[in-house]
Write a structure and sequence with these properties.
alpha/beta, nine-stranded parallel β-sheet, six-stranded antiparallel β-sheet, 17 helices, globular, disordered N terminus, binds (2R,3S,4R,5S)-2-(hydroxymethyl)piperidine-3,4,5-triol
Length: about 550
Amino acid sequence: MCSLAFAASQGERIPAPAATASGIPHLRQQGTATQLIVDGKPFLALAGELLNNSATGIEHMKPIWPKLAASNFNTVLAGVSWAQIEPVEGKFDFSIVDGVLQGARSHNLRLVLLWFGSWKNSLSSYPPDWLKRDFERFPRAQVAGGRSIELLSPFSEANRDADARAFAALMRHIKTVDGQRHTVIMIQVENEVGMHGDSRDRSPAANQAFEGPVPKDLMDYLQRHKDTLIPEFRRVWEAAGFKTSGTWEEVFGKGAVTDGFFMAWNLARYIGRVAEAGKAEYPLPMFLNAALYGVGRGPQPTPSGGRPWDLVMDVWRAGAPRIDMLSPDIYSETDFVAFCAKYTQSGNPLFIPETGNGQTVAARALYAFGRHDAIGFSPFGIDRPDRLGNSPDLTRVYELLSQVAPLILKHQGDGTMSAVLLGPKDPPQKVRVGNYTLEAAFWPIRYSMPLLMPGEPPPGDPLPAAALFIAAGPDEYFAIGSGVKVTFSPNTPGPPLAGLATVEAGTFVDGRWVTDIRLAGDDTGQGQNLFELQRHMGIQRFTLYRYR
Ligand code: DGJ
């Protein structure tokens, strides 16, 4: 299972692990997609992430669980605090973890646990007090001028080994209490790692490593994968002459970009070791989440403090082969599409552990699952006291997605599923799905005057809209969407025009399609398109025919 998706993309053979045989949640390739297999079946994580510290209190969680279940989540991302599980060095207390597991189980929810270990948001607030106090033994990173910051240095074996020991104990415990039940389906190792305040650690150990050669393991990896490296990364190496040995500055040039590569490698080595220790106990799929940058700000983003950005994906892959995927925390609405594309490069499976939970979240979910075969999607802060539960739109879309999940999972990776995400100013977009090309235009139905009912409030700004399409047969489709208007054209030889035959709005009940109403006339633009008058997100089944 280790780095299954990465390895597959690089054409390397990894032997099937024992974990697969014993039914532990694992990743598996299906066509071009990577699927998360839970209890022997592919699983679509309709997830949401709790506020950072919610899962440190069992009583605190009691009123929250039922609301989450009622919001149609099937998976919850919950933090595990290192300080809480190892209050005294070497003495572990998993009572809170057990309570969280119990809470999730009794509401039929799965868990993705977030290991808040050495690093959380590029600082170190979650390590235990005994470790924080012992700064000689557990050194901090330093910024220019030799000032220490509250960030455990990745250049310390003591730091790494303490983290790895605690993480291994956690994974051992999860195996003991959940090895059969599989409530916990994946693990995030650390949280949004990187560094603030400087482009690299400038502690004495870090300076010494920076002056030394680029490690042979990394150089060998880069040479082996020279033709498939992330293009922006390859260009930096190329600009410095594609050297195969030398110091960091000789191989990649001087500056903050190189500092970022150096940090990425050293963080990857550290976290890779932590992940390895955990997987030796219980090899659940493991990922890292990344705090992102602004697309289009400057010619090239600087890989700040080594964050697991797409630009340095190869460095992370080489340094931490037991990490299965890099996962973007996509808060930017305007860059959502771009980041989905960046984080599916070279076979990286898409799992979005954090995204905004605002008005457009439902459209983003449809897009991630339909366009990129996402393993899961997870807005952040689903238990915010002022908004406990889920946005009504996402609750609805998660309900629809859970109905369609068997079909989505069947079609992942075979090229017969796609999606569009369109803002008010975006031009129409074409997607090939099966034997037809679908063209979707933004269509702000909610603001169409004839549809406003007496007393209805005036419209605000139109919100982005989305639709997901699956070709279930040569002329048969299912779609989920609203706010777009979809037309069709054939993309195989034959009569050039496509017409809408049967169009139905309905529901999947236990995987079987049940028609609620049959649509034509006003509801299909008089037979010309889909969704034109659809005010509420729903599922439609439609068949097409060709004519001239
Ligand atoms: C990103 C972090 O990963 C989360 O833990 C959370 O703190 C959010 N930022 C808050 O916006």
